[in-house]
Amino acid sequence: MRKGLSWFNTTSIVLGFTFLYLPIVLLVIYSFNASRLVTVWAGFSVEWYWKLFQNQQLLDAAWVTLRVAFLSASVATVLGTLAAIALTRYGRFGGRMLFSGMVYAPLVMPEVITGLSLLLLFVAVNFDRGFWTITLAHITFTMCFVSVVVQSRLVTFDRSLEEAALDLGCRPMKTFFVVTLPIILPAVVSGWMLAFTLSLDDLVIASFTTGPGATTLPMRIYSQVRLGVTPEINAACTILIAIVTVVVVVASIITKRQEVERQKAERLAAAG
Amino acid sequence: MSTGVTEKTQTTIGGIRRKFAPWTDPAAVPLIRYENVSKRFGEFVAVDNLSLDIYEREFFALLGPSGCGKTTLMRMLAGFEDPTEGRITLAGQDLVGMPPYKRQTNMMFQSYALFPHMSVWENIAFGLKQDRMEKGAIDARVDEMLKLVKLEKFAKRKPHQLSGGQRQRVALARSLAKAPKVLLLDEPLGALDKKLREETQFELMDLQMKLGMTFLIVTHDQEEAMTVADRIAVMNHGKLVQVAPPAVIYEQPNSRYVADFVGDVNILEAKIEAVAPGNVSLYTSVGGGAKLSIAQNVEAKVGDSAFVAIRPEKVRVDLEPPAWQEANCLRGEVWDIGYLGDLSIYHVELEGGVRIKAAKPNLTRMVERPITWEDKVWVSWLPDSGVVLTS
User: Which ranges carry the ABC transporter domain (chain B) (predicted)?
Assistant: First the structure.
């Protein structure tokens, strides 16, 4: 067997990555374009980034987005972690199947449907739409992602650690905070980051549940693009991509390191 | 009652050493009492209407195959399970319904369950901190424990930086730190290799005597139970089959189950021919038919069928019929010999197809064996070597 890649494999990888990332690369490149025209290259410039930071509308939108993402990710992390604990710890309780189905349904539910149903709910209960409705909607649809991440960690969690804490006189609540949580923390953190990025780039659900005065960055960008793509938008998108990339990379490094450490500990344990 | 090597002595006020056997003293008050305890998980009966007394300063072993209920019995004492029926008391205090964090028991877990995010020092101090002990007292106690398990140099290490044996000692120190009324040991040496396990068994016994504490150990390893325990409870299907000191369990098993589970044993079917005080005569059809005589009191009738259990090390193999006794002599042929170095195990096929094992210590160096494959031999044993079992 040959070690290297055949020309077929090389070509398919190149084509695949080109298909996925060429548009993004182009966007990033053109964000540094000196020309006003999006499709004509006229030399390197950071002018649009400068302009961007003077565009109050975009800055407001970015501020709303960050607040929504931070708040919804935090609440979703608490709720998602609790749901994961309920699902892994309490093997048999009335309506477990229903509960687990309901936790994971938003994972596969088309966003349009989630958005529309939330909108109908908010209208029905006469909830003023705006910042809080977007936040609530984002909590609803990101919670299941946190739950999946935390649950996969809890499955391999040695329950005798908690029993040992109880046995040594620690109350159940305190046991959760001093034993369980520190051990599953990396999974909780990467769940939070996942929720944060999902909220950050959501357009569909935010559009359905928004109201006057609460425009998120993706919504602002989308509405400006309809009037024509400006290099300013390219710059905004580049920053967004950078944030998302950093968060996702950090989250995956945390997960990976945790995995490696666990394997190392297991090897050591096996070697005795 | 025969005296086992592990039975300890205790010094009385008069300075007279006597055997440690509170279970034989009707005035002794047990520390732990299981009274008609049952535990069911759905349909499965883990512990079945079981009563058991354990005394202070005892090293008590629960022995049985996996699924026999021994771990459940221990977990009910720790508070991780509540009995479905019955009462458990510790020093007269009813434990049922009391959460584990209020009980004066501590457990050493099979997986050790060391907190991975805490150092050795913090692991040992964990239980003491829950009691809101003052800082100086905690420091002193943790240092004492580290010294006890000889891990002073490892206080700052994290559990994953320790070897298996060291982790086992940290787990032990952590569970001893609060000086519990009972220390529970759940298969504590299962993860160690054989040599280390044997060493640790003696360390555990030593520690238990030094600290004067009550230890309850769960194990499926009969050698471990025999080595460390004052008394062993052999369990099967959620019931106690026999509770006795190791020597009694081995030499006077009360059933085929115990005889078979603890050590190696040959079991022959026989019919009771005569019952006299201190002696039973039986007849077995194997080995060409033979009279058996066992020095034992048995409650059985003439004509009842029974089993005779005989340990391999108590069986003699000779080329000539033994002249010194009439009973307990069976004819057969050497079917196989297992050479173990210290012992040779002779597998003798009796007439009728039943095989019997005889262990012979190799007392001298030998290359040529006087008895070898396919030799016609006689197997025999003394009347007080075998045991008659009626169940």
Answer: 32-262
Question: Closest Cα of chain B to A253: distance in Å?
Answer: 19
Percentage of chain B beyond pLDDT 90 is 60
Nearest CA in chain B to A161: B113
Residue ranges of the alpha helices (H) in chain A?
A: 7-31, 47-52, 56-89, 96-108, 111-124, 131-155, 160-167, 172-175, 181-200, 204-209, 217-225, 231-271
- B101 to chain A: nearest residue by CA? A169
Print the domain residue range for A260. Answer: 57-271
**pLDDT, greater one: B248 or A262:** B248
Distance CA A255, CA A187 (A): 7
> What is the DSSP code string of A55-114?
-HHHHHHHHHHHHHHHHHHHHHHHHHHHHHHHHHH-SS-TTHHHHHHHHHHHHHS-HHHH
**Chain A interface includes B199 (CB < 8 A):** no
Region B10-16 average pLDDT: 46
Structure confidence by residue, pLDDT tens digits, A23-38: 888 888 888 888 877 7
Residues B340 and B288 in one domain: yes
User: Does A5 reside within a domain?
Assistant: no
Instruction: Provide the whole-model pTM.
Output: 0.81
Do B272 and B231 share a structural domain? no
Please give the Cα distance from B102 to B94 (Å, whole number).
Answer: 12
Shortest Cα distance from A11 to chain B (angstroms)? 45
pLDDT on residue B153: 92
Is residue A47 situated within a structural domain? no
Contact B111 A163 (CB under 8 A): no
pLDDT higher than threshold 60 for residue A217: yes
**Which segment of A92-96, A139-143, B336-340, B348-352 scores lowest on mean pLDDT?**
A92-96
Q: Which residues of B77-109 are buried (b: 16+ CB within 10 A; e: fewer)?
A: bbbbbebeebebebeeeebeeeebbebebbbbb
Q: How far is B185 from chain A (nearest CA, A)?
A: 12
Contacts of B133 in chain A (CB under 8 A): none
pLDDT band of residue B13 (cuts 50, 70, 90) is very low
A163–B126 C-beta distance less than 8 A: no
Task: Looking at the complex, report in whole angstroms how far the Cα of residue B102 sits from the nearest Cα belonging to chain A.
Answer: 6
Q: What are phi and psi of B272, to 5 degrees?
A: -75, 130
Which CATH number belongs to the domain containing residue A252 in this structure?
1.10.3720.10
Considering the domain architecture, whether residues B60 and B192 belong to the same structural domain is answered as yes
Chain A residues in contact with B130 by the CB 8 A cut-off are 168-170
Closest residue on chain B to A182 (Cα): B117
Percent of chain A with pLDDT over 70: 95
> Which residue of chain B has the CA closest to A264?
B160
Among B238, B257, B276, where does a domain finish?
A: B257
- Per-residue pLDDT for B124 more than 70? yes
- The structure tokens listed for B176 are 């001893």
Q: Which of B101, B160, B191 sits opposite A166 (nearest CB)?
A: B101
Range of the domain at B76: 9-104+180-257
- Are B359 and B268 within 8 A, CB to CB? no
The fraction of chain B above a pLDDT of 70, given in percent, is 95
User: Quick check: is B359 in a domain?
Assistant: yes
Cβ neighbours of residue B323 closer than 8 Å, sequence gap 6 or more: none
Contact A170 B110 (CB under 8 A): no
Whether residues B221 and B297 share a domain: the answer is: no
Residue B353 is given by DSSP the state S
